[in-house]
Amino acid sequence: MIKVGISSCVLGQKVRFDGGHKLSRFVDRVLTPYFSFQPICPEVAINMGVPRPTVRLLFKNQTNLLVDTKTHEKDFTDQMNDFSEKKINQLNEQNQMCGYIVCAKSPTCGMERVKLYRENGNTIPGGTPGLFTGKLIQKMPWLPVEEDGRLCDLVLRRNFIVRVFALNDYYKNINLQSKRKDYINFHTRYKYLLLSHCQEGYKELGHLVAHICEYNNEEFYHIYRQKFMDTLRKHANRKTNTNVLMHIQGHYKQILDKNEKKELSEIILKYRNSILPIESPMTLLKHYQNKYYDKFIECQSFLSPYPEELNIRYGMQ
Ligand code: SF4
């Protein structure tokens, strides 16, 4: 099972300030069979209790402080920073964490745009990440992190799931002892998926692999992982997906008969013009792959970046 960290309340644990939870149905119904969730509630972990007074982020002396909402006199910043430092180091050392789902808007767990208050009660435009998640993103910048609410957006959801499965694949196939051939195999399998997310990223990763001898094993492991995950963070869209679909189409050029070629071209064009979802050309390509089998295409993660049963629609890209 793939290890994914999660804000405890999003998993349904009653740890919120009011004794409630924020169970995500998507997490509960769709992801639970695939992910081994590691629930963490930083506020409970530093003994703030349940129920507890609400807290907010206060910008004071050029620092984001975690203080009680009413008086600003109870300051939990040092405790939270100490806990975050230790917990995230521990998660990092386990080296198997493939993603993290956090609770939106929380001054502790929010990923972005959490309200940041001035002493006069006004908020600072743009907000900030919560104290714990801000540190998580800073210390593990390769880790796919997403908020519960944003996972309702099909494009963001797919991007997050793709990254979690890709990172898990990296950990399964690459380690600190991996050799050039291991990276070449891995990089080859991800060619079309990377291309669909970012052409420049794919090229830069190829350049890295070609110059692997300039790095020591550990250095390369970390550099490739970061660049790989940065590339997948960019969103695939109809234009980039069409480009990849046409590349794959090229592999069957000699094998498909006239009618099959026409059918595939038309379906790719309809996808490009937003008439059909990506499932249409993907299904047809998988059909041709079953029928004609191309060794290179068979290993491409682009056609199956996560288990089909997850049934996550790509959304209108
Ligand atoms: S948002 Fe974070 S700190 Fe708040 S209840 Fe949920 S897990 Fe705990």
TrEMBL record:
Location of the DUF1722 domain: 191-307
UniProt xrefs under Pfam families: 2-thiour_desulf, DUF1722
InterPro entries in the cross-refs: 2-thiour_desulf (IPR007553), DUF1722 (IPR013560), UCP037004 (IPR017087)
Protein name: DUF1722 domain-containing protein
Organism listed in the record: Paraphotobacterium marinum
